[in-house]
Amino acid sequence: MRKELQLSLSVTLLFACGFLYQFTLKSSFLFCLPSFKSQQGLEALLSHRRGIVFLETSERMEPTHLVSCAVESAAKIYPERPVVFFMKGLTDSTPMPSNSTYPAFSFLSAIDNVFLFPLDMKRLFEDTPLFSWYNQINTSIERNWLHISSDASRLAVIWKYGGIYMDTDVISIRPIPEENFLAAQGSRYSSNGVFGFLPQHPFLWKCMENFVEHYNSDIWGNQGPDLMTRMLRVWCKLEDFQELSDLRCLNISFLHPQRFYPISYPEWRRYYEVWDTDPSFNDSYALHLWNYMNQEGRAVVRGSNTLVENLYRKHCPGTYRDLIQGPEGSVTGELGPGNK
């Protein structure tokens, strides 16, 4: 009897410890613990499991519905992994916003495997080639600073912790089976909107060095997709894709454009059109919606039966239920640095 009681108490204690660990990680942001505890919580979270990372480099506190959909869909596809959303507008003393004022923020905060952390670039860039560059640059006069700082931050965070980075206009539809990969936007051209690596991968270190050595904020994409492409060309000999096969070079996979870009950027409006039959996207892992191209502010409208509405209904049902309105109250997404 005593042994049975001891066993029962041991099992109960084990479950309690597991719950307390998860609760501590979640509460490290929700209750705004001191900075060093938040950082420790982040490192503990990302060091144990390969995370999915999103960034917001503006001061915006309320995510757009597209950002909410991107984060929710990743949490749904990767239920056993932490989905970490770094937000520059957050600090360790930020009070919890109300549900009515920030409904998307509150919705994402409540998802079990979604964790929101402050984005402290100075701390993030420590011990990387980006640190001295960041300390010297005058951000107030830089062109496209929100996008450039996002390009830099994604390199540093994946180099430090490993995992998968995604832009906030990427809707996940099935798990990515690769560990070290880049996503082709076109033949012999890489994007930087989705990529994944194990921690301290030398390719990302070389990318950060090249970022600093060839820094030019006047050239759009120079620190982003152009950087990834020129470094990949140094790393391996690029060839054209054959049918739907991915390319492999050393220990990096260069994934076919169909994996993330089945609808190319000149055709981005097709996401907002009604299709006779919605495509299956059977060859894709996620869909990049090219929100940066949406300068005309096309909206996701409840009941429109557009492709994007159906994607929301299937892959981010909570966002669709709580944030998407009908024709008279349509919600449009503001452009952000992670929406390229």
TrEMBL record:
Keywords: Glycosyltransferase, Golgi apparatus, Membrane, Transferase
The organism's place on the tree of life at top rank: Eukaryota
Cell compartment(s), UniProt: Golgi apparatus membrane
Main localization category: Golgi
Membrane topology: Single-pass type II membrane protein
Entry's Gene Ontology molecular function annotations: acetylglucosaminyltransferase activity
Protein name per the record: Alpha-1,4-N-acetylglucosaminyltransferase
UniProt lineage: Eukaryota, Metazoa, Chordata, Craniata, Vertebrata
Gene it is expressed from: A4GNT
